[in-house]
Amino acid sequence: MISVIIPTYKEPEYLDLCLRSAFEGQVNENEIIVVVDGFLELNKSVLDKYPKVNILDLGTNKGLSVATNWGVYNATNDYILVVNDDNVFPKDWDIKLKPHLKKGKVITPNEMEPHPSMFAQKHIKDLGKSPSEFDLHHFWEYEQSLPVLPPEKSGSTLPFAMYKADYLAVGGWDIMYPSPHVVDWDFFLKCEYFGMEMVRIYKHFYHFCGAATRPTPEQSEESTRKEMLAHKFFTTKWDGKAEHNPQNNSKLLSKFKSKFRYIILSPEYDKNSGGITILHKLCHMLNELGENAQIFPFHPNQTKTNPKWNTPLISNNFNPEEDIVIYPEIIEGNPLNAKKVVRYILNNPRPKEKQWGDNEFWLYHNKFFYNYTFDFKTNQSKLVNEGSPENYLHLIESRIDFFTNENLPRKGNCFTLRKGEEKGYKVDKKLKGAIEIKHNTSFEELKEIFNKTERFYCYDTCTYISTIAALCGCISIVIPEKGLDKEIWRNKNPALYYGVAYGEKDIPYALETLNKVKPYLENLENEMVPQLKEFIQKTKKIWQTEFIK
């Protein structure tokens, strides 16, 4: 079901037509909320005709922004539709709108107007100069005869529909605007800033009946005065003029986003390091989503980046008051003295009270690091939290299109020590003569080795190379770590969940699940963008609330 929000002031005749079309035009029983912005007595006779309306009375005139926000806050359904009280609903409006509703998307059903206006409407149709003259059933017949045009990206107007939680996430309508003018453009600009998709659909049309009534000269003069004040406030807030078109929105957003910068502290790019690859991929994906992200190298002479990714090095002076700094968990304290800090927990963290600062935004790459703490003295993991972390971003670089099984003859084994060497592991005597994979082994060499050997033994329990071996058809075996249970190990390493054996006794599981590796990795990759968009929304909500809301 949909919750419909209809703010109303002192136009009972229009409200009556609006409610009649809403109730008679719906297929299912939706929630219809009328927010009375003052003048309840004036609207009472109309509201009494519709006993199923949920009436919210503001008592006094508090403005369209307050009325709209209050209606949304009180909505009981997941999706909302905000409509002016002088709009007329089309036939079957709810079932026509429902397929388009989706989290992260703002839907504007196109309006039909009685005469041309500043908005580029597709259809002009005068169906009456007043609500009493408006022929509802003729409108429905005419509206249903119109061709269905493809959706388009567009700066939006009322009416609009969206996920209620998305409306709340951007802070709703700004109550600081001195009039109803321009505040809707401000709201839609905020939605775009938070990464929501703006879509105008032409599957059904609402009629802007109120546009048929011409205001008096006095009303026009007062309206113009308030609109000028609203434009002035918009310009002050967004550092640009309000224009109702997507190109202008893009220009304003680009200008504003340049002030909101993510700085990622990282070593220079190394494709053989999973952690470093993730940090650089985070920078790349932020930029690809239209954000402003840059790499701050560990050392000034570290300048290597991935030439295929959008990962610029920091280009101008670092601003510790404004820039959002993303530290991996291995960085102690707050070396850049940043005011806004994200701690990206990529691996087992050391005792946090010694390493990290206060008031940080903790972002978990792996749910395991939220659920368990690791005692480095006993080499044991201990359960400390149930469920999933509130802030989660699991990025991977699967390379599934490159690492494939070439179905070649296989002979012998290969192995790698990597981090196992730091833990004192010694290579088993049975691997004498096996091919050793070192840190500087190229991807091309890896692919060749894994396509000609039968088994791969890995002394590093966390490296993605184990999954690469599986993708190439090589039996991939991780040497178990003392004190680390198999199920805990699997949960600790999502990208190694299928196709990899935890010890030789686990080889049957690896072979049975080998066909699941590629689709599982594809699913992990598909989840990355929604997770990253949620991270962007949360950081903007925390650190730019005072401006854009």
Question: Describe it for me?
Answer:
The chain folds into 3 domains: 2-215, Spore Coat Polysaccharide Biosynthesis Protein SpsA, Chain A (Alpha-Beta Complex), CATH 3.90.550; 261-383, Rossmann fold (3-Layer(aba) Sandwich); 413-526, no CATH class. The model has no long low-confidence stretch (mean pLDDT 86). With 549 residues, it is α/β, with parallel strands linked by helices. The strands form 5 sheets. Strands 3-2-1-4-8 form a 5-stranded mixed β-sheet, sandwiched between helices. Strands 11-10-12-13-14 form a 5-stranded parallel β-sheet, covered by helices on one side. Strands 18-17-19-20-21 form a 5-stranded parallel β-sheet. It contains 19 helices and 21 strands. The chain is 32% helix and 19% strand. The two termini are 28 Å apart. It is elongated. It has helices at residues 12-25, 40-47, 64-73, 93-97, 136-144, 164-169, 183-193, 217-238, 246-257, 274-288, 352-355, 368-371, 443-450, 465-471, 486-492, 507-512, 517-526, 528-543, 545-548, and strands at 2-8, 31-36, 54-57, 79-82, 87-88, 105-112, 149-153, 160-163, 197-208, 261-266, 292-297, 324-328, 340-345, 361-364, 372-375, 380-383, 413-416, 435-436, 455-458, 475-478, 500-502.
Characteristic key phrases:
549 residues, Spore Coat Polysaccharide Biosynthesis Protein SpsA, Chain A, five-stranded parallel beta sheet
